[in-house]
Amino acid sequence: MPDPLGLNVRLGQSGPIPLAVDLACDTAELLALVGPSGSGKTTILRSIAGLYWPEEGQVSCGGTTWLDTSARLNVPPHRRRVGLVFQSYALFPHMTALGNVMAALVHRPKAEREEQARSLLSLVHLDGLEHRKPAALSGGQQQRVAVARALARDPAVLLLDEPFSAVDRRTRRHLQDELAALRASLRIPIVLVTHDLDEAAALADRLCVLDAGETLQTGCPADILAAPASARVRKVLDL
Amino acid sequence: MDWPALTLSLRLGALTVLILLPIGIVAGRWLAFRRFRGRALAEAALALPLVLPPTVLGYYLLVAFGGGLPLGQGWQALFGQPLVFSFAGLLFASVLANLPFAIQPMQRGFEAIPADVREAAAVSGFSPWRVLWTIDLPLAWPGIVTGLVLAFAHTLGEFGVVLMVGGAIPGETRTIAIAIYDRVQAFDMHAAGVMAALLLLLSLAALAVTYTLSNRVGRRA
């Protein structure tokens, strides 16, 4: 029984990027999309955020439908309550860390924005760096600003696109621990895109295995690793 | 020094830039972010004034401004005076001749904004209007200023188009570039030299500003 307040995604497309996707992520659940490069992971995130328009599909989250091609409904990205952390972080280069987070708080009263942005930066352990611009922050710090900005939107779903790929191993371990801790305070579905199976298995409640834009198998990591549904899943996961 | 000619040139340059500012932002942004059929043709048409001899552009404008075509007729009907050999006609010609000088640097300025930064703005809840004001314009401003400076400097130096559509009516269409030519024709080399030196300095200053700003587009922090 799908969670009506969770994220439900069905996408179909024959080309140029073929898609045959059916996935769901419940409230407070962390779902990892795993698959090789070019398997459509990022396209799925972009479709959820409204940055990519598949030929057909339905996307709903938090009880609101964002995309329904059969009803010609397509809510633009700025009206979807999505928090997206880009692989490259995509911070606004001309704004400080505080400015980046405050920019995503326009739905809040003006007087509250700075305090809210400071508490979000504090949540991701960036106290004291509020007035630095992205160029003066390390990769790990930039990633944290990107997470704070994504949360500032008060999102109905948090989407993370390979958020640990651009940092060194030690920072990655730190950030992964922080994400695990942050999860406890979030009551929204979280979708993590990664090509690192160990990372997915360590962080996610469930895995969704993808290949060539198709969802092959979804389940808890231990079950999938113990019993891959097909030879294709075995091959994709290199088991 | 022909002060009325200098004043006229400065007024023409300022008004040209004022008109080209919104046109350049809209067209430059459109060309930077949209993919549409006929885009190459549109860009080619916009770049035409860069390669056409000014007399050719001036010739077509002169024909279009005349009483035989809708533009000239419409203007005459609206304002009761011809577009040709008038300041308004000169301004019109100046805007057209400067389209590529203004639009191309602005387009490059917008193109230099990473696509994911604009997408991040959208998913952060920015309306398209707010993306323009808080992301596109602050990040593309060196390109925008470069376009305006180039258009201004080019207007001051424009000769062929001005001569074709404006003639050399003192106070109406005689710009400083035309005045230099007139002075040389009258063997007044001193006056021509002073005005030429002024144009040289203005052009050098404009290009210095342009190169300084172009370096900024690459390394934004």
Structure description:
The complex is a heterodimer of chains A (239) and B (221). Chain A is of the alpha/beta class and 239 residues long. Chain A folds into two domains: 1-81 and 157-239, Rossmann fold (3-Layer(aba) Sandwich); 93-154. Chain A has helices spanning 41-49, 97-103, 110-123, 139-152, 169-183, 197-203, 221-226, 231-236, and strands spanning 7-13, 19-25, 30-34, 56-61, 64-68, 73-74, 82-85, 157-161, 190-194, 206-211, 214-219. In chain A, strands 7-8-9-3-10-11 form a six-stranded mixed beta sheet, with helices on both faces. In chain A, a hairpin with a 2-residue loop joins β10 (206-211) and β11 (214-219). In chain A, α2 runs parallel beside α4 (139-152) and α3 (110-123) crosses α4 (139-152). The radius of gyration of chain A is 18 Å and the shape is globular. Chain B has 221 residues and is mostly helical. Chain B has one domain (3-218): MetI-like (MetI-like fold). Chain B is 80% helix and 0% strand. Chain B contains eleven helices and no strands. In chain B, α1 packs across α5, α5 runs antiparallel to α9 and α6 (99-111) packs antiparallel against α8. Chain B is globular and about 65 Å long. The N and C termini of chain B lie far apart (44 Å). The chains are: A alpha/beta (239), B mainly alpha (221). The interface between A and B is medium-sized, with 27 and 20 residues.
Largest interface: A-B, 27 and 20 residues
Let me know the average pLDDT of chain A.
92
Describe the main β-sheet of chain A briefly. Answer: 6 strands, mixed
Number of DSSP helices of chain A? 8
List SSEs of chain B in N-to-C order: HHHHHHHHHHH
